[in-house]
Amino acid sequence: MERPHADEQDSRRDSRYFYDTEFHWDGVSIRLVSIAVVSDTGREFYEHSDQYDRVRAAADPFLAEHVLPAVAGMPRRSDAELRARLDEFLLPRPTVLWADFGAWDQVALMQIWGNMAQQPGWLPMSTRNVREYALLLGQRLPGYPARRHDALVDARHVRRMFHLIEGRLDEVEEAARRGGS
């Protein structure tokens, strides 16, 4: 397998992003509370959303204990503000997004832009799950950090976990190619 040149590796590195969201799910809808994104070069984005109802979220014991304290005092941002700030932060444009149990995060992220027709063409339509890749590789991952469920703490942790498996990702890709042929 041919290895990418150093400048290609740098380009790939610059376009990988690790993220986490915290949200209020009432069994019907997901309402974003906070989102954090960390670039592979270490730049960080962390914002508090105005999508959720403060009273209803505060009535949820889990959110009240673990999530809401992390965003206390942060200004709340509308979806329009979040879109503009993410549009500016996500340069270079992401080629891949990584999360930990990212299915819910992907939905919360995409809701910032609206429905499927409103998604920007540059936004990946899927998120890679770092924990799933680690499992395929038989790689143990570190435990969760203190202050888990603070989106920024968790996004940083996704990045750390990714770097533990990064050198072996070609093994997963090769196995997928063999299995698909």
What is the alpha-carbon Rg in Å? Answer: 17 Å
Helical run tally = 8
Q: Topology as H/E string? A: HEEEHHEHEHEHHH
Would you tell me which CATH topology applies?
A: Nucleotidyltransferase, domain 5
InterPro entries: RNaseH_sf (IPR036397), Rv2179c-like (IPR033390)
Domain 3'-5' exoribonuclease Rv2179c-like: 16-163
Protein name: 3'-5' exoribonuclease Rv2179c-like domain-containing protein
GO molecular function: nucleic acid binding
Give your account of this protein's structure.
The protein has 181 residues and is of the alpha/beta class. The protein is 44% helix and 19% strand. A six-stranded mixed beta sheet has the order 4-3-2-1-5-6, with helices on both faces. Strand 5, helix 5 and strand 6 (128-129) form a beta-alpha-beta unit. Helix 6 (130-137) packs parallel to helix 7. The two termini are 16 Å apart. Residues 1-11 have low confidence and may be disordered.
Topology at a glance:
Elements: H1 6-14, E1 16-25, E2 30-39, E3 44-49, H2 54-58, H3 61-71, E4 76-77, H4 79-89, E5 96-99, H5 103-111, E6 128-129, H6 130-137, H7 151-165, H8 169-180
Parallel strand pairs: 1-5, 3-4, 5-6
Antiparallel strand pairs: 1-2, 2-3
Helix pairs in contact: 6-7
GO molecular function, one term: nucleic acid binding
Domain 3'-5' exoribonuclease Rv2179c-like: 16-163
Protein name: 3'-5' exoribonuclease Rv2179c-like domain-containing protein
